[in-house]
Amino acid sequence: MARRLKGARLHWRNRDAEGKESTWEIRDESSRISTGTSSRQEAELLLSEYLSQKHRPAGPVGPHEMSISQCLTIYADEHATYVVDPPRIGYAIDALDRFWADQPTSIIAGNTCRKYANSRVTRFGKPASNGTIRRELSVLQAALNYCHGEGYLTSVPKVTLPPKPPARERWLTRQEAAWLLRGARNLRVDGRHLADFILHALYTGSRKVTILAMYINTPSLVGGHVDTVQGILYRKPRGKSETAKWQRPARIPPRYLAHLRRQAKRGRKYVVQDYRGNRVGEIKHSWSRARNLAMELARAKGIEFDLSDVTPHTLKHTAITWALQKGVSIWETAGYFSTSPETINRVYGHHSPDFLKGAIDALNRSK
Predict the structure, then answer these.
(1) How far apart are CA 276 and CA 294, in angstroms?
(2) What is the pLDDT of residues 284-311, one digit of tens each?
């Protein structure tokens, strides 16, 4: 009777007698692959990666032959690390994989996409918003398109997205922005780095992930940088290809450039760094505290406003809105803030003094 195969598994290789370090290895039939680690947790991750690669289709297969989990894994391994915000893609993939798992990609249709939407809840147990669901299902469609383009899938199932939510138009008045900065500067521990984040966002309109990876005078493969000598902002890491999320270079406004030059003279390495000189990876908690403190400080002076709906991305909306209100053209605004003219016109165009000027002038003519 033929010996039953055990499949890929971890095996502890004890090499104490040889005077060498003992490690975990992956055994799969006659193959023995060292993981190079004595940590069970690390070895399990490597085994998971090995199995993922082992069961990956070698050539084009039909949608019924590739699982959605395999499709998402291929996309994550081969492409997702090169996008503007890899963690955001990772969160979406985790949510998608919990629902779809090993079901074949052929099951994707309007009714199953709606089932996903109805079942999707946040970590607080509340129904996810249409914007969140739409973003996650867009990742699924991108993964399918990638697998088809790379020759893994013979055809691409169509993902049905929920209706697109209306564009958020929340932006800060100059008074609100000033109080938000004051709230950040009054924080005990992380106020300085949050104030630096807010200033950079208001002057450049960059996205959060771009700002937190921004170096000073040091080109990098992992983040953009500000060149305080030439006065140029490089949003994109060196060597990174262009994506749908534009990351174009731009001139730095003189007033803000002077601030950055002072930081460079003090030896600052990052635009946003903590008091130890380390790069700041997240501002979620300090942002919430600064927002609440700003409202408290203003209220003490008899000024009332609500910042509860203000997010870091609101600063990008604010920077673009202020530029248009000052009369900067839509085309120049799009170029400076690295956002497409179509998006500027659709989301912010009504803030421009010249919005629908041609139609108004035509209606105002006597003949």
Answers:
(1) 25
(2) 899 999 999 999 999 999 999 999 999 9
Provide the CATH number for the domain around residue 96.
1.10.150
CB 26 within 8 A of CB 46: yes
In terms of residue numbers, what domain contains 44?
A: 1-54
> Would you report the helix, strand and coil content of the chain in percent, each value rounded to 5?
50, 10, 40
Same domain, 34 and 111: no
Extract the tokens encoding 6: 């055990």
Of 165, 200, 219, which residue constitutes the final position of a domain? 165
Element (H, E) at 13: strand 9-13
Q: Classify residue 235 by burial, with Cβ atoms within 10 Å: 0-12, 13-18, 19+.
A: buried
**Does residue 144 sit in helix, strand or coil?**
helix
d(CA 206, CA 320): 10
Supply the pTM of this predicted model: 0.63
* Secondary structure letter of residue 127 according to DSSP: B
Are residue 149 and residue 223 in the same domain, yes or no?
Answer: no
Distance between terminal CA atoms of the chain?
Answer: 98
Residue 364 lies in a domain: no
